[in-house]
Amino acid sequence: MTATVTDAFRTPARPGWASLVSADPRTVASFYEALLGWAVTETDGRLLASAEGTPVADISDIATADGPPGWLVHFDVDELDTALTAVSKAAGTVTGGSAVVTDSNGTRFALRAPAPQHRERRPAPGTLAWAELITDDVDTSAAFYRGAFGWELTEPSGPLGRREWQAYGRSFSGLLPRPPAMPAETPAYWDVYFAVDDIEVAAKAATEHGGTLLMPPTPVGIGTIAVFLDPAGAVFTLVQLTTEEADA
Q: What is the pLDDT, as a whole number, of residue 35?
């Protein structure tokens, strides 16, 4: 039986924003500026980033931020209160601010409203294009997001068993069971994917500007990805989307 997508997501779901908590925000801001072409400005102690005129992310100092270091993905919703209520009913928890939550496995993500009314068909270079839940418990994760939001999962594919989250029949993010190479002490998390036009060129630029390559360019269902640590140690992924996925 297919779950009903909650009223919080009358507009098809998608990741819409990313927040970075870092021990060295200015250094990492310069890194992402060089890598992704971001324009970074400062407002009330936060660094705000735009890509090709589209606001995409904020960066905060760990000394002043509410949360652990690393990236936090925000999903756009139509009704924030409805979404937060759905999280609680599905055994999730509101953990910080007005819209930072944890799923039933304790994995943090955030919700953001109102959702933008205009959505680009093709993610511009440097913008948030995808998110992927890396989890130790696929069944519990599937039950939580299905129960809270009506999201469904595709069948596993590839050697690592990747799946895609879908709402209204449209894929918008992924799920990956914890891969063997991922250290056991690394907690489950939502990974952020930033779009690039040429993954080979971008991967080279990332290491030249101080990033650390964790996984070289690798084809997956949505395109070709490469995984990195930024200069302050936050994990992120670059993706060159396939033409079909980019135009979805």
A: 98
